[in-house]
Amino acid sequence: MRKKKQSKFPAKYVLLIMTILCAVIIGCSLKTSGSGPVSAAAGAVLAPMQKGVNQLGSGLTNLRGHLRTKKSLEKENEELRTQLADAQQNLNQVQLNQEELDNLKSLYDMDQNYADYDKIAANVIGKDAGNWFSVFLIDRGSNDGITVGMNVLADGGLAGIVIQVGPNYAKVRSIIDDNSNVSARNLSTSDLCVVSGSLKTMNESSLIDFDDLRDKEDQAKVGDQIVTSNISDMFLEGIPIGYITDIKTDSNNLTKSGHIATIVDFEHLDDVFVILQTKDISTDTTNEQGGE
């Protein structure tokens, strides 16, 4: 018996028939009312497709919105960075201007406090190595009337003394230098003492030493102001040096010694005054001078 040959229906025709069927269903759904069976069938077929399309469209819209938001935030962030940089620059300029005003006010106050002396302002332009302005240069010299032995003021107190002069500069030895000695007086008791520079003490406690204070009445105390004495042969009388921070009786039971907090900030020196007169001393302007 011969087996009957089985016929095959091409898949492309199946796809074509389904496409036509879908088109018919869609057409019918458009012509019938929304409550008809054909419309319901079409809705059942198209609703999932429409939902997927809607979700895809919504996702693309959200993605586009996120991209726009990101670009907007990046632009705003860059603008804020620019504004912050400008604000910081303005703040720095204000601080510099305030520092300049403070320096000018300090110089003015100091000028008024020493109105009896002829003075000239100068800028500090250099110093020896180290943290302290123990020996430093100023931008005034012999062309400005500066000579060796002139007293130098800063912050309302004694900074040092001119030890070398050039046409446009001068070198100053400060009172904290190891080679500095100043004849001084306790302003409260009028007792004399010697103030000695000491970089070692400055490094340890930011103080300088005083000794040989003859306090017979035992009246000297912490907080007393120390000024230059009338018997000094290098420093003009009455210039403030600093304040006593500690005091003790020496082993000889005749004198006292201790430490002084200087009025001048020897870690930060920008502007000074030079008093244009000296005590009656003989100096060689080519050589550096030591302390008293």
Automatic annotation (TrEMBL):
GO process terms (BP): regulation of cell shape
Family annotation (Gene3D superfamilies): Rod shape-determining protein MreC, domain 1 (2.40.10.340), Rod shape-determining protein MreC, domain 2 (2.40.10.350)
Parts forming coiled coils: 63-104
Span of domain Rod shape-determining protein MreC beta-barrel core: 124-275
Domain of life: Bacteria
Gene Ontology annotations for the cellular component aspect, listed alphabetically: plasma membrane
Keywords linked to the UniProt accession: Cell shape, Coiled coil
Pfam families in alphabetical order: MreC (PF04085)
PANTHER family: CELL SHAPE-DETERMINING PROTEIN MREC
Functional description taken from the UniProt entry: Involved in formation and maintenance of cell shape.
NCBIfam families linked to this entry: mreC (TIGR00219)
Similarity-based family: Belongs to the MreC family.
UniProt protein name: Cell shape-determining protein MreC
